[in-house]
Amino acid sequence: MNDEEIQNLKKNIVSIGRLLWEKDLVSGLNGNISRRVDEETILLTGHGTCLGLLQQKDILLVGLDGTLKEEGHISTEKLLHTEVYKNFPDAQAVVHTHPTYTNAFFLENEVLSPRILEAKCFLGDVKSILQTTPAVTDATPVMEALKNNNITVLRNHGVVTKGIDLFDCFLLVQALEEACKIDAISRLYVGTGSKSIRVDGTVRTGLEPVPTELKKYKLFSKKQIDEIVVLVNADTQLNEMGAKTNMTMDLAVKLDETGEIFSFNFEKGKIVNVGNSEDVEFLISASQEVWRAVFNQEIDPFVATTQKKMNLRGDFAKISQWYAPCSRLFELWAQVPVE
C-alpha cells in the first residue's frame, strides 16, 4: 500500500472517530480504532487521543507483532487489535469504544437478546466477557467470542467489533447501543426483568443450547439432510406458520470448501422435494466453520448473513416475509447438530 492509500485510510479513521463522537458512542479519551494496511501492518489510534478530535498524526503504523513503526505513543489496547487481525484474516477494521447504555446493560447482564426484529437479524445474541483489567491482557476469550459474532462486550469496560470496513464496525456499535437503550426504556412500560420473546409469542432467553443427548451427524451428509426433512415436515408449528404465510420457495444450502449443494422445495412450509440444484430462488453458502456453528446453534443464520459470514443469493426483503417460519426452521436445524 502506497503513502497516498495510507493517508486515505487515516482520513477514514478520522471521519469514523468524529461520527462515533457525534453519535455519543465515545467520550473523553476512551476508545480506539484500527485499520488493516497489509498482512503485517495496521493503523491504530495512539494513546491518549480523543476520537472526536483526531488528526492524522494521532494515527500510527503498528506491526502485528506490536512494534511501533513511527513516532508516537502506542495504544494500551494494541494487543486487542493485533490479535483480531492475526486471528481473522478477513477482518479489515476494528473499533473499540465504551458506549454508555451498552456498558450499563452489561453491568447487570451477561447476554443481550434483542427483541426488535431488525436488531435480532443484525446483532443476534450478544455475549459478554468479564474483564478485570483496564486494558485487555488476555485476548483469547475475546477471539473466541468474535468467531460467532462480529461484536462482543467486555463487561466493566466496553465493546469490540470487527468488520470489512470501519463503517461496518460503526453500524454494529450503534445497533448494540440502540438495542440497550430500547431494553432500558421498555422497562419503564412493562416493569423490570429482561426477556426475549419469539415472533410466535413464546419467551426465549439467549441461544438455547443443543441438548447433549442429540445424535450428531457428519456435516452435509445425506443422513443429516434426511433428518432435517423429517423434522421440518413433522413440526406442527412450522407447518402452521408456513401455511399462514404461504412459504413456497426453493432454498439451497452450499458448502464453500467442497461445493456440495442440497436444495429444498418448500410448499406452504413443507419440504416436498430435495435435490442438488444451484438454480434456486435462494442460495445460502458458507464455510464449514460457519455451517458447524449454525447447526450447533452457536450463531443465528440471519445474523450470519447480515454480518457477512454467510452469503445469501436472492432477495433478502422477500425472504423476510417468512421471518417467523424461517426462524422456526433454523431452530429445527439445531436439533440436527454436527460433529
Automatic annotation (TrEMBL):
One of its GO terms (molecular function) is metal ion binding. The keyword Phosphoprotein does not apply. InterPro entries: Aldolase_class_II_sugar_metab (IPR050197), Aldolase_II/adducin_N (IPR001303), Aldolase_II/adducin_N_sf (IPR036409), SCP2_sterol-bd_dom_sf (IPR036527). GO terms for cellular component: cytosol. Residues 11-184 form the Class II aldolase/adducin N-terminal domain. It comes from hydrothermal vent metagenome. One of its GO terms (biological process) is pentose catabolic process. This is Class II aldolase/adducin N-terminal domain-containing protein. Keywords: Lyase, Metal-binding.
